[in-house]
Reverse transcriptase domain-containing protein (Periplaneta americana), 448 residues
Amino acid sequence: MSMILFTCALEPLLRMLTLSLCNNRQMVTVLPVYAYADDVIILCKETTDPTRIQEVLQVFGNASNSVINFTESTFMALTPRGQTISSRFTNVNKMKILGILFTPNIMDVIETNWKDIVNKIRYGIKRHLSRNLNVIKKVWHINTFILSKIWYLAQVLPIPIHTAQQIEKVVGFYLWKGFVFRIARLQCRLSTKEGGLQLINVKTKCDALFIKEIIRTDHNIDTLVRISNYVASVQASSMTRSLTKLTTDANKFLEAIDIAPEQITTKLIYSYFQDQVRCLPSVQCKFPNKNWKKIWSYFKIPHIPSSWKWETYALINGIIMTEERKYMYHIVPTPQCNKCGTIDTISHRLTRCSDLTRGIWLCVKQQLNNVHKATNPNINLRIVFDLDVPQTPHYFSILWLAMGFIYYMLKNKTKTLPDFIKELRRVYLQTDVHVREKLQTLDFLTEQ
């Protein structure tokens, strides 16, 4: 209630200020007075405006018996000269307005605010480095929480190229900490159905937000052109090249679409820019004859733990760190397995490394045979290593078991059949009832 009373008390002052500052002006495209909570922001276009403001404050104070605290009221000239005025307001050379720090120099405004954002992202990521998250969960965390600090500022100020590169570097360090082999950044930005992880492209998303805000204001990109020309006249820098390219890309986007400006969304702009740099996953280029559309669709199926999906995704993309792969990159002197002495491949690690490994694989094969009833002796190997799942009514059970097997064999150093069954039963009991009904075909989950 107190906030409502405060608003009611403040509104007459805001109306008086607006009428005073808009007096005798032919057309007002931008309102000169803004209020957010207890902060009032006044935009002055003429040197006489500060005097008018003081006169209005005097009249309002006499009528309402209120007093303005001039020590907390500041004035800043948004000109390169940073001129001062003779008034009761405190003259400053920087001012925070709605969370954004402004100075008389546009380049300082851009650099200072984006530097602050980069520092906040570094601090936010540093706090979470000790968390044990798989890469899929890290992508969720980055998209939802870490990068959320950027989007508000990106609608107001264009992001410099070097700032976007710094953010990508910090995000990449967090995402791949502890990994030797990685997924290419372009592939990570693809959607799940295309074989990616849906990691947001920072530069493209910021550009899309900035262009959308320009179009929302003017229904064209004239303002963007003026900003680009102004920055070029003030300072020749990478920011000038970035804005010039952004203007060109925005023009191409408007020429490529045929919809009204008010129907343009940030998602539409972002998708258009992403389509210009879209690529195929490297493993898809290497094995083009596989049914990749079906394989990638499995990673969108719910009720399978993200940790299982990640280990399977890593296996499919060939980034599992076997001794053979490390030997190929001269990381280790020999490709032999440390346990049994044979060549350490993925197939060896999952199915043949020891008697315990072979026992787990035999159990999995029996369960898969009971579900799909296939006669092809190699079908189980294709299910596990290629996600070539037969399209039977019980395909979910096959996929669930295959991903659970891959996760257990790759993440556990000591492997036993009872422990494997215990791990799958634990996940099974945590799922919803309707999911358990789908998994009834895996009899070892329900055996006591």
